[in-house]
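Troubleshooting: if your tokenizer reports a length mismatch, compare your output against this known-good record of 288 residues.
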Amino acid sequence: MKTTFAFLFAGLTITLAAASQLPVEDFSRWKIPRDWKNSAGLLEHPFTKWTSASTTLKLKKEGLHRVTFRYRTPGAEGVPLKIRIGTEVAAAFPATETWSPPTVYFREKSPVPFAFIAEGKKPYTLQIKEMKLEALEDADCRKIRLNADDGVSPFRTMKGEMHQAVKVTDHIDEGTAFLCRGNGAKDLRSIEIPATPGRRYRLSFWTKGSSGTLRATVDGGWFPKTKYWSFGETMPVSEQWKKHSMEFRCPTEQEYPYLKRGLISCRFAVPAGQTELFLKGIELEELP
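Known-good structure output:
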């Protein structure tokens, strides 16, 4: 039986409490190379070589913020769109023929340099529209859902064939799932999502696919000369939908100072020889 839920989609689904929208300069006021076009709120670039479009984000206070927008990259291959916030690349989004709404979370002091970076291996078209900037409170991030209804943007493929977002009818909630195929090892890594150091969380999700295993991991990212933290579990995968969950504690800043960023990623690794994997209903929830 199909169950319907009401969610807000923005690259991933999030339960909102007190998010406040902040102004963003119109694309016409950005630093844009001559070959980029801006018309009726649509930023467009006929890609032939590395290039970027940039602006400065003005924040009212320090804390967690997020940027959302919509993009598509007809004719692209690989990972053509990256986001730079401050001096670091904060996210990379896979190629997509259809409009997809990604989300980028960050903690920076105002003003914050921001840029869309176009990359690729052959000519394609990059289109961006509907950019929004929001300031978040802790309550905004207590439950986050990586949603395949929003296309491929919540994940990037680290190893194996490009993942897809496909409709499914045999799941209790129907809807859309992430799908990975291929004989080789597969590895998906999510965008960075908020997690407060010292608090406990539950990561839950549904799987289906060819019989085998899945390694689900959460970590705080990799940084030079920094002690690395991760937590993971190996779970079975069968030809029937099954819900999995794992609970973990996000370490404190004293244990791992770099976790003061308050951002972690989810990673799903599938061994070679397992030819198909569906992922659905991926949710990170803070526990009492």
